[in-house]
Structure formats: C-alpha cells, structure tokens
Amino acid sequence: MKSGVQRFDRFIDAISDELGHADRVEPFRAYTTGLLLPGERKSVEPIAARVGPTNVRRTHQSLHHFVSTSSWDDQAVLLRVGQLAIPELQAREPIRTWIVDDTGIPKKGKHSVGVAHQYCGQLGKQANCQVAVSLSIANTFASLPIAYRLYLPQPWIEDNERREATGVPENIEFATKQQISLDQIRAAVAAGIPAGVITADAAYGNDTNFRDQLSSLNLAYAVNIQGSTTVWRPEEAPLAPPPRRGKRGKVPIRLQRTADQRPISAEALAHELPPSAFVDIPWREGTKAPLRSRFAALRVRPAHRDTLRSAPRDHEWLLIEWPQEQKTPTKYWLSTMDESTLMPTLVETVKLRWRIERDYQELKQELGLGQYEGRGWRGFHHHATLCIVAYGFLLIDQGGFSPSGGRRLQLAQPPLPDNFRPRGSAK
C-alpha cells in the first residue's frame, strides 16, 4: 500500500498538466502541502515558512508569484480535481445533487477585490466581506466544490481604478449570483460531470428565470422558495385565453385569471391542507438521534407571471416542512424531480444541502479558505482553488468519505525557525 506522501505525489502529478508550465508544478505541490500541514494561518507567508524554513524569503517569493501572478486556469484545475474525485464518490453512491451556494468571507478595508458591505453568511448579518458563488457535487458520503467565483457588486464593476488595482479582467461584467451559478452549471454540463439534482436556497430558488434555465438544460432541481411564492392549487390552473371578439383585432394568447380562480401562496396552501397530509419522515442520522420532521408533498403549477404566457407551467412538486411544534410551516421547496418520486426521496434530496456547510467549515477552519491576505482577483481565485485541491485530495485519500469525518493525512513538516512569527498570528 502506498504511503500518504506517495498518494499525494500521484494526485499532484495527475493535476499538473492543467497548470500550463512545468515550472509551476513545484510551487503548486509546495502550496498545497502547506495548506494540508497543521498551522494557525494558511496564507502565503506562513505556508512558505512551513514548507521552506531554511530559505523562507525565496520560498515566499516563489509561492507569492505562483498564487498572485501566474496565469494558470482555476476552472481547469477544479474540473480536473472533480474528475479525479468522481470515481471515489461513485464507488460509494452515484452523484445525487449539484449544490449551488455562496459563502461570505469577512474582510476589513475596501481595497481587497470585491469587498463590500453585503450579507455575510458566516456572520449571519450585513458586514464588510467578499462573497463567492460555488457549485459542488455531492452524495450522502461526501461533497466537493467544482466551481468557485467571486461575486462583484455593481459599484466594483463601475470603479475602473479599483478594478485595475486588483487586476479584475476586462471581460468581467456585472453578473448576479444566479447568473454566475448558471455559468458554472453550464460549464459542468459541458465538461460531462455526472448530473445531479440541482439544490439551492431561496436566494436562487425564488428566481423563476433561474429555475427555467435549469429546465432548459434538462436538469432536475429541488430548490428552496419563500412561502410567499404563488402556485395553483392541485386541481386548478390559469384560464385559457378568451376567444377573439369580432372578426378584427389580434387573437388573445395570454392566460387569464378571475377573482374566483387565482393562484395562492405556498404558505396559504399549506394551511389549507388537512393534518393527515403531513407525514413524519427522517432523513439522516444526527449526533444523538435521527433528524426528522413532518412533510407534505403535492403536485402544483408555479404561477409566477403566467398571465404573460400562452400555456400554463408544467406541474412540479411542492414540498412543505411543518415541524410538529411550530405554528406555521418552516420551509418550502419546488422540485422538477419525476412525478413518481417518493416523498422520503424528495426530503433526502433537499436536506443533502447540509453537505455544503460541512465543505465550507472544513475549507475555512482547516484549509484556510478565508485567510488569503492579497487583494487581487487572480490571487483570490488561485488561493481558493488550491484550498479545494487540498480538500479534494483528502476526500480521495479517504475513499470517497467526507474529509471532516475521517483520518487526516500526515505529511512530514520541516521545523520552523525559532524566531518566525507569521502575519495574522496571535502574539
């Protein structure tokens, strides 16, 4: 059986062709090693001290150039890591979902690329932060990000001085998080990544165009929506266009509503359901007991702006979660999974999103995702890509299990100089 170092070397070799030049392989290996080694900080300077303690300055210069300046392709590397991980994941279970999400990285000041006062999920409030959109592949054993891109708020797009200072490419225009996500999904489809059901929170699921674009790609989804989202009751639909009046004028083509036949909010529909419609369903083992709640599932037609359409939308699943102890439902989802899908499968699918929380926890706390100290566009994405490379290796090395749930790789670490104190460390 190969040692951990030998397995790591094979992994690095399998990705190195995506870097473009042979002289990038050694800093790639060194930086990824530094991310995997224990340490308080995972930015360039502390990594240089860990992997090259006898010549920290030269190692720092090499790694800094590789991360902040070198022009290798992040997405090509991420897709290659995904291709290497997929056989390990599928040896356990087929890919179940593609998880769409975004993560906030708190950041002081205003000069680091993309920093703005916006919602930061890590802090649970509005704060100065960077926000990145990601796409992960997942099954019940593990998950792995295969795309990661910074969201640039409109003020950054319009600020040529800050764009130039941080190296934002000229072809980067404003894109919503939903648009960024759709680009990532299209790239994954083009790369032949095994399809999974798209899952996303309400920031994405509420966007009808986002859902429509997924359907146009022939991808099923199971996305969170707000209770205010309108749908038609199972036995109802919008009215057909009225007949033309007289022999002149345009033939009406738009669907109609009346005072008696109108859509209803998902929340209002949930309150109309009898108690017997809700079933107690467990979805996975928790730390002390199975996680479970009450759910109802019914076939409905989404109603968003259907009076501008000539044909009603297709039926979808509306899944509702209403815990026994709550006075109102807590969550709602729309899903285009097959009509024959059983409710436990619907529940397991939407609840698999917990995997992305584990991804980000491991990436931030163990591998330093949020600890890059540079300000530039390229460095931000290179550092994140290398963190995901390290995460992918841990996943593969553990045979398709989540890195946070198993053993950690042991790599030899040279001793640090006695007088070394990395920036950002505790005094």
Task: List the secondary-structure elements in sequence, H or E.
Answer: HHHHHEEEEHHHEHHEEEHEEEEHHH
Gyration radius from CA atoms, angstroms: 25 Å
Q: List the total number of helices.
A: 14
What's the story with the biggest beta sheet? 12 strands, mixed
Give the termini separation: 42 Å
Q: Which class do the helix and strand fractions yield?
A: alpha+beta
Helix amount: 25-40%
Overall number of structural domains: 2
What is the average of the pLDDT values?
A: 91
Strand segment count: 12
Q: Unreliable runs, pLDDT <50, ≥5 residues?
A: none
Q: What share of the residues does DSSP label as strand, in percent?
A: 15-25%
Shape: globular
Task: Please provide a brief summary of the model.
With 427 residues, the chain is α+β, with helices and mostly antiparallel strands. It has two domains: 4-201 and 357-405, no CATH class; 205-236 and 260-352, no CATH class.
